[in-house]
Design brief:
Blueprint lengths: L1 E5 L5 E8 L3 E5 L21 E5 L15 H14 L4 E6 L1 H11 L4 E7 L14 H10 L3 H13 L3 H8 L3 H8 L3 H8 L6 H4 L6 E6 L4 H13 L4 E5 L8 H13 L1
Parallel strand pairs: 3-4, 3-5, 5-6, 6-7, 7-8
Antiparallel strand pairs: 1-2, 2-4
Helix pairs in contact: 1-2, 3-4, 3-7
């Protein structure tokens, strides 16, 4: 069922609600919209009422200027209010960072699971002017440059692979949300782990990594698990940053139902 909620600044946030049981909100990462979790959602709906949403600027949701990370935290709070006033939350990649920030800011999250928030060691972070150049490309309407810069410098995708992605069916959808890549850059900041802030999180937290992911991603998950009091660490063997829904779902169900 497609519904919408008004965030604190009046922005319309569109979401889909499915299943039955306790509320579980899914927070996607870069290039994601509410349909990005279409393979995962049906695996969760027997246990939870699942809320998948378009982050602001994506899909059918609005996008009120100027952007600020605090507005996205307000979006999560509004969605949780619509879900009954509290919810469990799963976040992936930059959505995992958002979910951690929401929990640290006191949004009524009852349990939190995060998959590979992109905190990076200093030697793996993009150049200091990376975010400025991405914003300049977005302001100029050059969405191909936004994508290319993000993929090669923030994600570490070889330029020849970017060329292959450009020929894939995904490219058109990526172009349609590339203007929100500066939002993800703002969320991640300089890539350092905000240890003191996430150490204030008091809800049960599960930090998940893929066993086949790059070392920086596995290090980030381990660092989150060490920083959040009482957090659990879990590795899904054979998986990378694009974790398979059928392997992720049992991990989430086990954590959120125990």
């Amino acid at each position: 069922m497609t519904e919408s909620v008004q965030s604190a600044d009046g922005t319309t946030i569109v979401y889909e609600r499915s299943g039955s049981g306790p509320a579980l909100l899914l927070v996607g990462g870069a290039f994601n919209n509410r349909h990005s979790a279409d393979q995962l959602v049906p695996l969760l709906t027997s246990d939870f009422t699942v809320y998948a949403y378009d982050r602001r600027g994506r899909g059918d949701s609005g996008d009120t200027a100027p952007y600020a990370v605090a507005r996205e935290l307000e979006d999560i709070a509004a969605l949780i209010e619509a879900a009954g006033g509290s919810a469990m939350v799963y976040g992936h990649s930059s959505g995992a960072v958002l979910a951690l920030e929401a929990a640290a800011s006191g949004v009524p999250i009852t349990k939190l699971a995060v998959y590979e928030p992109p905190y990076m060691d200093e030697d793996r972070r993009p150049a200091p002017d990376y975010a400025r150049r991405v914003q300049a490309a977005a302001d100029a309407g050059d969405m191909e440059l936004v994508i290319r810069t993000f993929l090669t410098e923030a994600v570490g995708v070889p330029i020849e692979v970017v060329g292959m992605i450009k020929q894939s069916p995904d490219w058109t959808g990526m172009l349609g949300v590339a203007h929100t890549i500066p939002y993800d850059n703002a969320i991640v900041g300089d890539g350092s782990l905000p240890t003191s802030r996430i150490a204030t999180i008091t809800v049960p937290t599960l930090a998940i990594a893929g066993g086949a992911s790059e070392e920086w991603a596995r290090n980030a998950v381990a660092a989150v698990a060490a920083a959040v009091p009482g957090a659990e660490l879990h590795t899904i063997e054979g998986q990378d940053h694009a974790v398979a829904g059928d392997l992720l779902a049992p991990v989430l169900i086990d954590f959120f139902t125990c």
